[in-house]
Amino acid sequence: MTHQALLQLLADMSLEEKALQLCQLPGGVYNPEAAVTGISRYEVDPRIKQLAGSTLGVGLGKKGSGTIRAIQEEYMKNHPHHIPLLFMADIIHGHRTVFPCPLGQGASFDPDMTEQAATVQAEEAGLDGIHVTFSPMADLSRDARWGRVMESTGEDKLLNSRMAAAMVRGYQGNDLKDGRSLAACVKHFAAYGAADAGRDYNNTELSEHTLREYFLPAYEAAIRAGAKLVMSSFNSWNGIPVTGHPWLLKKVLREEMGFSGVTISDWDAIGQLVPHGFAADKRDAALKAMQAGVDIDMCTLAYTEYLEALVQSGEIDEKLLDEAALRVLELKNELGLFENPFRGLDDAPRYTDAQKRAIARKAVAESLVLLKNDGAALPVKGQRVAFIGPYAQSEELISSWALAGEKEHTVSLWEAAQSAFADGETQLRTVPGCTMLDNDTELARGHYQADDWDAQNEALLRDAAEAAAWADTVVLCLGEHHLQSGESTSRVSLRLPQVQQRLLHTVAAACDRVITLVFCGRPLELKQVSALSQALMVCWLPGTEGGNGIMDVLSGKVPPSGSLPMSFPYSVGQEPLHYDSYPTGRPKPASGWAGFTSRYLDCSNDPLYPFGFGLTYGNLSISPVALSANELTPDGSLTASVTLKNTGDLPAARTVQLYIRDVTGSRVRPVRELKDFRRVSLAPGEETTVSFTVTEPMLRFWRGDDTFGSESGAFRLWISLDSMSGDAAEFTLKA
Ligand code: BGC
Questions:
Q1: 185, 160, 153: which is closest to 172 by C-alpha?
Q2: Ligand 1, atom 8, residue with closest C-alpha
Q3: Which of 242, 414, 465, 718 matches a 20 to 30 Å C-alpha distance to 686?
């Protein structure tokens, strides 16, 4: 449809019809069986159901495509202007094929892989009739207590920016009219990840400089990559709820970032302006959200009930409503829905199942982060290998956000181990060892509690001790329950359940080669786990091909290559914890008396495992940094290089990281900041030179005078394999 035709359509629509384009109803209204976040049924007036512009959460069940076709047919038939209904859903890290959770994808430091995974997700969801995904989540995540860190790609703005942009490119492809693509909705704008004390939905208190410098870049990167929608977040920022914040949603988002697409509230976020204490009632909430710049009301029905009246009373200018409704119509047009309301449903897939699984398997292998490998415990060796622990046989390797993922299609570690060791030379055993959770957690009470919990665990632990004594290698599979990370899963403890800790002690006492795998959606306290294990590897929530991808690394077929996308603390008391912290006026000395310096009495300032850390199988040596020049001019560049050599007997693969520090500035600069990164793979004995180009724009920051720019002076530069190691080279930026 031409722009002129869209304008004509808008002119022909009644006030009510325009207002209802801005109403999003939960899928349960159209299909009571739809898998919908939170609510599955919703009673609304049939007229609203007929005129609402969009819905969410349909197309996730087994009969997805049939459902969407039937709903669209009925809707189109009855809509006065035959405007198609827009179907949105949370396709976060997989639709039918589930990839590692976003934090795991962050660990791969491989935006190309993430882009390819997003292409697969878009195709699967598009073929089921879905048009829009509520992804990427570009929230910077510095606090492991916040359960939604699982949905982010981590604590660093550059990594998050590259990952968010990659997801947008993958979902949207080159042609949004192609039914195998999805429009991307970047969320949760803004600073949702900075919730006070890591408690979900909590206020965020951040200076404008921290917001601009650290929290906004990844949303902006997604917008620059072309994201068609932006979701406003639940939280308030410095006391003003974002969903009612014109400065953020208009000035920053539209004027400064140049975003011209559709804005949508988070679920019921407009209604929540009332309990926030920002709006007197739902009518006031509708007024404030509309004035702030929220186009679509997700599931509050505040716009449905009050927008028309607010325009009639003159409190809202009809022009504002028209602009928002036009943006929604434009999105439908860009998706090709006016020509084909059944977009995607009749298209042929480009990927075969085998291809999708192969991509997912590779993504898993790349996401694994090896934290310890004493005595080359890995790759797995031995005649008798026992897979012990609640994750050994579990198919629950997908997160609560993989809404259409089916655990029956998921390859467990035990299943994968049996085919990896099918030669018959290695004897295998498996036992669960203990329950996944302690008896007293809220989750256990809701789902799994049994009267004989303790007796059950005593028996399981006895079996585990016996299996561990039999084995020469134990692969111990521990972790958080998959429902312990995601929305509304904040925690004050970052430890494994006590029953799993008991299992660890039991197994470590019986076998002297324990390889511990930790499945999780957030950084955990792993000091004790590490001390009792010869090898330790973080496996995140790996998805459909979890077992196979992990076995590829355990067996030595693929070297581990992942790097931590978030710092792993010694103690929860260190949170929020991130590598790019500011120096203090009283830094803790490297050695000697530390009194009256910035430190904890009872813990290191440093993390147990820093951002960017990971090991591989080969032995990587890295040369000192060579700079092509010691001075950089604003329009010039310099090259920083290192030579990496694999001096080991096994293949190596890692991400080489470029960090820079501006030594003095009008606003203090972090002790290190990631500026670039590159994955490398080296065969035994192989060496390669890795070079990064440094230019002036990489050195810009939000300065003391509240403008972005660089400042001349001294800089330090590291090329290293994590955010703490390596020796710095120095250069100067000339004015
Ligand atoms: C979440 C969003 C999600 C939305 C729709 C909300 O509760 O915060 O991330 O996209 O629900 O399911």
A1: 185
A2: 266
A3: 718
What pLDDT, in 10s, does the model give residues 690-709? 999 999 999 999 999 999 99
pLDDT-derived band at 38, boundaries 50, 70, 90? very low
- Name every residue whose Cβ is closer than 8 Å to that of residue 499 and which is 6 or more positions away in sequence: 434, 435, 437, 438, 439, 457
Record the tokens describing residue 576, joined without a space.
Answer: 């929020």
SS3 content of the chain, % helix, strand, coil (to 5): 35, 20, 45
Beta strand extents in 73-200 (DSSP E only):
86-89, 132-133, 183-189
**For residue 468, how far is its CA from the centre of ligand 1 (angstroms)?**
43
- Which residue bears the tokens 């390889």? 515
Helix (H) / strand (E) containing 16 = helix 15-21
The average pLDDT across 420-436 equals 93
- Side chain identity, residue 153: T
267 lines ligand 1 (CB under 6 A): yes
Contact between 547 and 415 (Cβ < 8 Å): yes
Distance CA 731, CA 716 (A): 7
Integer Cα distance of 189 and 534 in angstroms? 42
> Given the CA of residue 36, which atom of ligand 1 is nearest to it?
12
How far apart are alpha carbons 131 and 71 in whole angstroms? 14
The answer to whether the CB of 401 is under 6 A from ligand 1 is no
* DSSP string for 80-117: TT-PPPEEEE-BSSBSSSBPPPHHHHHHHT-HHHHHHH
Q: Which residues contact 424 (CB under 8 A, 6 or more apart)?
A: none
Q: Quote the pLDDT of residue 42.
A: 65
Query: Three-class SS of residue 255?
Result: helix
Residue whose pair of structure tokens reads 């962050």 in the numeric block: 106
Cβ–ligand 1 distance for 37 under 6 Å, the answer yes
Of 378, 722, 414, nearest to 560 by C-alpha is 378
- Tokens 């410098």 label which residue? 213
Cβ pair 520, 540 in contact under 8 A:
yes
Q: How many residues does the chain have?
A: 735
**Letter for the amino acid at 57?**
G
- Match 């010694």 to its residue by tokens: 570
**What is the rounded (10 degree) CA torsion for 371, 375, 381, 383?**
-130
Q: Which two tokens stand for residue 82?
A: 């035959």
Question: Which tokens belong to 725?
Answer: 């190691």
The predicted pLDDT at position 725 comes to 97
Task: Enumerate domains of the chain plus CATH numbers.
Answer: 3-334 (3.20.20.300), 365-574 (3.40.50.1700), 620-733 (2.60.40.10)
Active-site amino acid positions: 266
Q: How far is the CA of 267 from the centre of ligand 1 (A)?
A: 6
Confidence of residue 34 (pLDDT cuts 50, 70, 90): low
Q: Which of 686, 681, 690 is nearest to 646 (CA)?
A: 686
HEC assignment per residue over 576-632: CCCCCCCCCCCCCCCCCCCCCCCCCCCCCCCCCECCCCCECCCCEEECCCEECCCEE
What's the rounded mean pLDDT across residues 589-611?
Answer: 96
Residue 372, ligand 1, Cβ within 6 A: no
pTM: 0.98
* Percent of the residues in the chain that have a pLDDT greater than 90, as a whole number: 91
Pick from 440, 698, 416, 382: nearest CA to 550: 416
- Closest Cα to residue 115, out of 50, 164, 64? 164
For residues 61 and 87, is the Cβ–Cβ distance under 8 A? no
Contact call for residues 206 and 237 (beta carbons, < 8 A): yes
Q: Which of helix, strand or coil describes residue 695?
A: strand
